[in-house]
Sequence to fold (181 residues):
Amino acid sequence: MSGDQSIRTSREVQVLRIPSGEQILLPADTPVVITQALGGSFTLLVPAQAGLFRLSGDDADAIGQTAAVRDTASAMEGPVKEEAVWETLKTCYDPEIPVNIVDLGLIYDCKITPAEKGSMVTVKMTLTAPGCGMGPVLAREAEEKITALSGVASASVELVWDPPWSPDRISAAGKEKLGMV
Fold:
C-alpha cells in the first residue's frame, strides 16, 4: 500500500499509538496516510499527532477501506492442525515492519493439547524489543485469530524474553522482504 496519499477519517475512531499501545480517539476529518495494510489492520501516519497508529480492521470503514483477512478456519474439520495455527499466526503483522510475526522469528513455541471440546493452543512469543507497548496488542490479536480456528477451544499467547530475540531469527522470506539478503 502506498503511503503518499492523505485521506481523512470519516468518523471518530479509536486507534493505538505505536509503539506505546496507548489508545487515543481520532476525531472525524483527521488527515491520515495509510503506511501499511496487512493482516486485517492498518498502520496510519497521523501528521497532526506526529506519529504512527494502528487501526483495527473492524474500523476500516473510517478510512474508506475494508479489511481482507484470510479465512484459514473454513476448510478445516476435526481437531485443529498445527499447520493451520502457524498459517494463522502468519496473518499477524508488526505494525511498523511489513513482515508477519512468524517470519520475524517472534514465535518461539506452539503446543496443541486436547481439551474437553476441541484443542487448547499455547504459543510462546517474544518481541523485537522488551519495552514495546504493542506486545500485548499483538498477543491478543494472535489469540483471537487462533481461537477463531475450527477445533480450537481456547488459545493462550504468552510473551517471553528468553532467549532474547535477535535478527538472526528472521526467516529467509522475512529477510528478503526487509532487503537483508
About this structure: The first helix runs from residue 82 to 89. The mean pLDDT is 90. The domain at 82-177 is CATH 3.30.300.130 (GMP Synthetase; Chain A, domain 3).
